[in-house]
Amino acid sequence: MRNKVEWRNGKVAEIRQVAEDVRYIGFAVDGPVPRFDPGSHSNIAVEIDGAAANRTYTVIPAPPGQIAVAVKLHPQSRGGSRYMWSLHEGQEVRLTLPENRFELSWRAKHYLLLAGGIGITPIYGMAKALVARGASVRVVYAARSRGLMAFANELEALLGDRLILRDNSQGQHIDLDAEFAALPGDAECYLCGPIGMLEAAKAAWTASGRPVSRLRYEVFGDSGLFAEKPFSVEVLNRGTRVAVRSDQSLLDALIGAGVEMIHDCRRGECGLCAVQVMGDGVEIDHRDVFFSAEEKAEGHKMCACVSRLTEGHAVIDVGYRN
């Protein structure tokens, strides 16, 4: 884990609905809030089933002295979004100052920003920053319906015809091949959305012959290819058997069972919480962006913070890197 995470006291200053299932929550923070770039995130202390935990949220544009996030209420929430939706104005919270793992390069002559669902949170901030700099930018935003598109009205006012909305309920989807084909050669693409959207974009980008370095992405860890089902694991050489609920991550279940785990991002990005899956025939729903496609196909490693077994049982080694 990193040494320089600065926690602050804060208080809920504003709550408003920005989509049918998304709330904007702004926090007035004690002390100065340094400038932060779009794509940054903060950790927020939450309470899940009576236990203290931390959850990470993308930071979005907010008034000076505040940190704001947009939280989607997930039907299969592990508790984080339920807690965030239970907050009320004036309630005290603990949160970290923003840090960034999804940075704009600021070097491209043209930017394509793609968002799927709640993946709009970093894209919204990026769009505002790029427009403020006079950059050439196009945003394509897809969701299951117009009512589920957070910040759609704000983006329409900001971008005009440079914003394309794709309403899945109307049979509309992002045509990745067409979007990439229309880009100038020196363009960059930034994407945030579910894992299926990311995999499709990576394949289309590679097929277009563009440099891999010009496609940057972030994925949210609850976006697997399979429905979340309970499963169980046995920790190698410890005899510890751990049951994982459908609304619980493997990482949280292991920590709750007293297994010491190294972890940081809780987003499937850093790889610190990765475990070895022993044996063959175990089906893993990979939801991370840390392991390569080849490593995922081998089926012997998984990020405990986001990935899970599709069902059943497996033996895992939590210390295979030592």
Features:
Rossmann fold, 7-stranded antiparallel beta sheet, globular, 34% strand, Elongation Factor Tu (Ef-tu), domain 3, single chain, 322 residues, 5-stranded parallel beta sheet, Ubiquitin-like (UB roll), alpha/beta
Topology:
Blueprint (H helix, E strand, L loop, with lengths): L6 E13 L2 E8 L10 E9 L2 E10 L5 E7 L7 H7 L5 E5 L2 E2 L9 E7 L3 H13 L3 E8 L8 H8 L3 E5 L8 H6 L6 E6 L1 H13 L7 E5 L11 E5 L4 E5 L5 H7 L17 E4 L6 E2 L7 H6 L2 E3 L4 E2 L3 E5 L5
Parallel strand pairs: 8-9, 8-11, 9-10, 11-12, 13-19
Antiparallel strand pairs: 1-2, 1-6, 2-5, 3-4, 3-7, 4-5, 13-14, 15-17, 15-19, 16-18
InterPro entries: 2Fe-2S_ferredoxin-like_sf, 2Fe-2S_ferredoxin-type, 2Fe2S_fd_BS, Beta-grasp_dom_sf, Cbr1-like_FAD-bd_dom, FAD-bd_FR_type, FNR_nucleotide-bd, MRET
Pfam family, one: FAD_binding_6
GO molecular function, one term: 2 iron, 2 sulfur cluster binding
